[in-house]
Specification:
Helix content is 10%, strand content 28%. It has 4 helices and 18 strands.
């Protein structure tokens, strides 16, 4: 298990100057919990987009978040940032949800692939807090419902999707800038962008980090090599993987271990792996929201009605 750096990687250059939002400040002072104030909501909804100073998709404020999850015997420690979450719209007309991983909350380096272990983790969740990843707001907000999907296919099969949960955003939904899912899975050689704040190896103002897909398995597992060989992947589990248009093509989970190494690729560099968005949506029985590129209008999408489980 890696030791978590106490510094919060949220410095960002904007029109108003350099903004900093240390995690320690979130936990120990000056943060509001479930404030629900109209002023905060208006500030979220009317915030400007993050300035895109590099090649790649634009990722706006209030899209990428930091989750703090209390599960089983592991309480929330506001000083420790272990993962990333992101807001996305699953179905046209529905409120956006927050997607986040389970294994960082259990202080495990690898994703949970066993369905029984994943269900035990879900059932053990007692509290989820989130904070904006780039310091656009210093508020911590509480989420209260995990969305339970009836999985398609054989439930006993180990899948990378078991590690991910969708959480209802409740009153926070108004202020979110949700992403949308892509309709196709990238191919080997395509570029993807991991969207999150990083601890080291890149400017704190950089929102997305370029990688090249080097492997795609039949179970939805994607492996990629980052263009930046100094990039730190600390607390990046759960970050969305975007195409050049900013649509979600996958979710980053971890660095590949020995079992996932790719022999054809030269040694060295920074590698990651995740699960494709197509596989995640297939397992959840969700058809993604489609957008007409000419008009920007959303086309109809659907899914089975999921169960929502309160945990606090």
């Amino acid at each position: 298990m890696k030791i978590i750096n106490r510094m919060h990687p949220t410095a960002r250059l904007s029109g108003a100057g350099l903004l900093l939002a240390p995690a320690l400040a979130l936990g120990l002072g000056g943060c509001s919990v479930e404030s629900g104030s109209d002023a905060l909501t208006d500030r979220l909804a009317n915030s400007p987009a993050v300035v895109d100073r590099y090649r790649g998709p634009t990722v706006r404020d209030f899209t990428i978040w930091r989750p703090y999850v209390a599960v089983n015997e592991f309480p929330i420690d506001p000083d420790e940032i272990r993962a990333t979450a992101f807001a996305v719209r699953l179905v046209t007309g529905d409120d956006p949800v927050m997607i986040m991983p389970l294994h960082p909350a259990l202080q495990q380096p690898d994703p949970i692939v066993n369905p029984d272990a994943a269900q035990a983790a879900r059932s053990g969740v007692t509290k989820i807090m989130v904070s904006e990843a780039f310091g656009a707001s210093d508020a911590m907000r509480q989420l209260r419902q995990i969305i339970e999907f009836e999985e398609v296919g054989e439930s006993a099969v180990d899948r990378w999707t078991h590690d991910l949960v969708a959480v209802s955003t409740g009153s926070l939904a108004r202020g979110l800038r949700p992403l949308q899912f892509a309709t196709a899975t990238p191919s080997v050689g395509d570029t993807v962008w991991m969207a999150t704040a990083v601890y080291a190896g890149a400017s704190p103002s950089r929102v997305a980090h370029e990688a090249t897909v080097i492997r795609i398995d039949g179970d939805g597992r994607m492996e990629y090599r980052f263009a930046n060989s100094r990039l730190s992947l600390q607390a990046t589990a759960g970050a969305p993987l975007l195409d050049d248009e900013g649509h979600v093509v996958g979710v980053h989970l971890a660095e590949p271990g020995d079992e996932g190494s790719t022999a054809e690729v030269p040694e060295g560099g920074v590698f990651g792996f995740g699960v494709s968005a197509a596989e995640l949506l297939r397992v959840w029985g969700v058809e993604p929201v489609l957008v007409d590129r000419r008009t920007g209008d959303q086309q109809a999408s659907s899914r089975k009605t999921p169960m929502r489980r309160n945990f606090s």
